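Q: Convert this sequence to structure tokens.
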Amino acid sequence: MKMIEIHNHLNKIWGEIFELNEVLREKLKPFGFKVEPVEEVFNAYIFLEGEWREMLYPHPAFEIKPQGEVGATIQSFYFVFAIPKEKITKEFVVEFLKKFPKSYIYGTENFLEDIYNHHSPRNPDEVYTDIERSQEQVFQFEVEAEDSQDIENKLFEFIELAKKYKVLEI
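A:
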């Protein structure tokens, strides 16, 4: 990748995240969410070439309170929500994986060990069993998309799913 391509790509993701932040601030208010300003997130991880790799460089993201974050890495746009284990049902996991095949599920404490990783898809029943057996108390449900419009659409689909199964505190 040439320097100008890196520059243009970083400008694209940062610009789109700032714009998405403004859009979601208004659109999510009626749902009971509070959208925080965009921040620089350091020491996150990205799944590249079959493994999680630490990003020592910042990427743009913002909190959606309660329980969520929206952001962009060099790889994709994403949102992630923290869901307490006791609120997760088998039906929720099955529907989540059906609606969002390009996703990850992992614990809050041991976040580098995936319960589900779309690069190695697994049966939803196995995923739910692993959640049940885990010592983790909170799980991260993360969804990826190619662009900010796609992640916005998927976010609203997720909110509807979350309301159906009452997994968020809204």
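The longest strand covers residues 77-84.
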